[in-house]
From TrEMBL:
Gene Ontology CC entries for this record: endomembrane system
Family annotation (InterPro entries): Phopholipid_MeTrfase (IPR007318)
Keyword check for Metal-binding: no
One Pfam family of this chain: PEMT
The name this protein goes by in its record: Isoprenylcysteine carboxyl methyltransferase
Protein topology in the membrane: Multi-pass membrane protein
Gene3D superfamilies: 1.20.120.1630
């Protein structure tokens, strides 16, 4: 694995970047932003919890830094719609923060988050999963999108 920093820490760093870079960008605040931000936050939390529970049900590792310890390929539940619902959940939480605190800066940070997680986490994980699960993972990869 190229990445030695756990994705939740990357998400935390990006979230702090969104929050603390507020003074650098124009502020957009509308009545509906709180509702929309809360909706994305809730959706992100639900997505994360659902994904973690799916891994637990199949008794496989949730540790993103050690994908080689995966004992089974999870392709059911939320994993039918996204190969990476945990990262998607983290992204939805960052979108929530972007809407609430810093729209312009948040968009820039979100693109950086997507690029970083894809290059240093998802692609290396996929390499390991293909080696572990072979044709089963290749079939899954063909029919299920990486993010959404």
């Amino acid at each position: 694995m190229n990445n030695k920093i756990p994705p939740p820490i990357i998400t935390l760093i990006c979230g702090l970047g969104i929050y603390f870079s507020r003074p650098l960008f124009p502020k957009y605040n509308y009545i509906s932003t709180d509702i929309i931000a809360a909706s994305f936050l809730l959706l992100g939390i639900i997505t994360l919890i659902t994904a973690v529970l799916s891994f637990r049900r199949q008794s496989t590792t949730v540790n993103p830094l050690q994908p080689e310890k995966a004992s089974s390929l999870v392709v059911s539940g939320i994993f039918k719609y996204s190969r990476n619902p945990m990262y998607l959940g983290m992204l939805l939480i960052l979108i929530s923060m972007t809407i609430k605190f810093n729209f312009v800066g948040g968009i820039l940070i979100i693109f950086a988050f997507i690029a970083f997680i894809t290059k240093f986490q998802i692609i290396p994980e996929e390499t390991v999963l293909e080696r572990l699960f072979g044709k089963e993972f290749i079939r899954y990869k063909k029919k299920t999108r990486r993010w959404i």
